[in-house]
Amino acid sequence: MANEVGGAANDAALAANLAAQKAKEAFKSGKLPYPGCGRNFERFRFWDLFYALQAAFDLRKVVAHGLGFLGGTIIMTLLGILGGLIGVGWLNTIFGIIGMLGFLASVSIFSGIATAQSHAEMLARKKLPMSEGINFVKSRFGVVLGTPFFFLILMLGVGAGMGVLAGIARIPYFGPIFYGLTFMVTMILGMAMVVIGFAWFLALFSYVPAAGSMGLSQLTKHMFSLIAKNTGRFFGHFAIANLVASFLWVLVNGIFSLSFLPIMGVGVQAGGANVMMTLMGLPKVLFGMLAPLMMGPVGKILRRAGGVSWEYDVGGWLAGIFLLLVVCLLVGIVFSYWFSAGVVNYHLLTQDEEQDAAGPYRSA
Predict the structure, then answer these.
(1) Residue range 256-280: mean pLDDT, rounded
(2) Nearest-CA neighbor of 331 among 245, 258, 261?
């Protein structure tokens, strides 16, 4: 028995040395010693949360995430413009809700494809055709789309309750008194919306890997059970992923914004005030919630855009469409990392249980 154990140990040591030698040779030859999928060992390890940055350089995944954001932005923009043209307050609200649903659907579908692709490649430890992610979303469409919608519907329900209480306040004499009496309920509902929103954020971080084998209700319970059992580790991984994603956004957004300095410098010199007026015509509505996040010159332009004549508006819209495509790619870079880090997080928390259930660990 001792000889067998010693022999096994020697075999393992030889295998490790051989792997290390191959890695050195690959590094010297200019090729990275990992497949670029975000997982670099037989088991998922903590450092894979950082190796998941490799996904941010996979153009296929970046484009998929970016297309989801672009599609959602177009839906919200068109419905927002339509609601503004109608000019009826309650219809504006309905169009806004429908636009929000369309935005969420677009992002969920395309981000689901890219995240499922990352998951499949991490398990296989090699690059796979994008059909892997597409087929996954097709086969699990209800769960992939239903999970984020579940939380949104909860928030809309709570918001409707707050709206009813606020609407009663319009009743003369009785309304303000009733609203004051029920203000504590309004406060509780407001806090509930915040809690649901945060729970939504937590669930989206790592839900795709579990979506392949669970229904919607089972998946939701599983995710929060997983968080409850591994609270410290989950929030540690979650915090790291968000810090890295924030740094990544500042980096790519900073490079993007700095590119406007030579554009504006050369443009103003060559095209005069017309260039500045065209840039002033960039439509803020295209960028929605991203406008306040844009740094540097482009952020200043977006915050004061508008108020120019029609030809500058047309030029601004044309420039804005191309600008939006670039911004969607930047968002895709950040999303690609964040959701891939969520895949790593899921397996870091579950791989020991999976190994206990399946026996000795074998790489997929």
Answers:
(1) 73
(2) 245
Picking from 128, 345, 125, 91, the residue whose alpha carbon sits closest to that of residue 235 is 345
Which whole number is the average pLDDT over 77-84? 79
Calculate the CA dihedral of residues 338, 344, 349, 350 and round it to 10 degrees: 130
Contact (Cβ atoms closer than 8 angstroms) between residue 154 and residue 189: no
- If you compute the radius of gyration of the chain from its CA atoms, what whole number of angstroms results? 25
CA–CA dist 257, 260 (Å, integer): 6
**Which tokens hold the place of 164?**
């009813």
Which one-letter DSSP state was computed for residue 363?
-
Q: Model's pTM, two decimal places?
A: 0.77
Average pLDDT of span 68-84:
84
Q: What percent of the chain has pLDDT over 90?
A: 21
Contact residues for 216 (Cβ-Cβ < 8 A; gap 6+): 142, 143, 146, 147, 150
How far from the centroid of its chain's Cα atoms is residue 316's Cα? 28
Residue 324 CB partners (closer than 8 Å, separation 6+):
70, 73, 286, 287
B/e letters for 330-350, b = 16+ CB within 10 Å, e = fewer, are: bbbbbbbbbbbbbbbbbbbbb
d(CA 82, CA 88): 11
Task: Please give the mean pLDDT across all residues of the chain.
Answer: 78
